[in-house]
């Protein structure tokens, strides 16, 4: 199994808009993907002052990720206008070992 972790810091003032886009675009898309075992969207804790959101996804294997997002599977993907809301982002993949 593969853990895919996305972290994105949104431009100031776009926190609610980002969460809305993820709930309306990204999550419905994710739920349709075969090979996706589960996912956990994360938002900054209220008192943190952070603008960084995350999405932890568990996939069956790399082939399942490639089938969902294509040959550029090591790059972040965005739905609709999500990318315009992001100041910086990172994406990492890990093998689950237990």
Give a short overview.
This protein is α+β, with helices and mostly antiparallel strands and 98 residues long. The chain is 26% helix and 35% strand.
- Structural class call reads alpha+beta
CATH domain class name: Alpha Beta
Instruction: Please give the count of helices.
Output: 2
Cα(first) to Cα(last) distance is 10 Å
Order of helices and strands: EHEEHE
Strand order of the largest sheet: 2-3-1-4
Which architecture would the CATH scheme give at its second level? 2-Layer Sandwich
**Cα-based radius of gyration, to the nearest Å:** 13 Å
If you average the pLDDT, what whole number results?
97
The percentage of residues in β strands lies in: 25-35%
Low-confidence stretches: none
- Sheet having the most strands: 4 strands, antiparallel
Amount of helix:
25-40%
**CATH topology label:** Alpha-Beta Plaits
Domain module tally: 1
Approximate shape: globular
Count the E strands. 4
Structure in words:
With 98 residues, this protein is α+β, with helices and mostly antiparallel strands. The protein has one domain (2-95): Alpha-Beta Plaits, CATH 3.30.70. The protein contains two helices and four strands. It has helices at 15-31, 62-69, and strands at residues 2-10, 36-42, 52-59, 86-95. Strands 2-3-1-4 form a four-stranded antiparallel beta sheet. The mean pLDDT is 97.
Q: Which descriptors apply to this entry?
A:
4 strands; globular; 98 residues; alpha+beta; Alpha-Beta Plaits; four-stranded antiparallel sheet
List the helices and strands and how they pair.
Blueprint: E1 2-10, H1 15-31, E2 36-42, E3 52-59, H2 62-69, E4 86-95
Antiparallel strand pairs: 1-3, 1-4, 2-3
């Amino acid at each position: 199994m593969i853990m895919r972790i996305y972290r994105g810091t949104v431009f100031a003032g776009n926190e609610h808009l980002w969460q809305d886009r993820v709930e309306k675009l990204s999550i419905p898309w994710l739920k349709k993907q075969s090979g996706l075992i589960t996912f956990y969207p994360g938002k900054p804790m209220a008192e943190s002052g952070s603008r960084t959101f995350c999405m932890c996804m568990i996939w069956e294997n790399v082939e399942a990720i490639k089938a969902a997002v294509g040959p550029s599977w090591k790059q972040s993907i965005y739905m609709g206008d999500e990318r315009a809301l992001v100041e910086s982002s990172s994406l990492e993949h890990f093998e689950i070992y237990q």
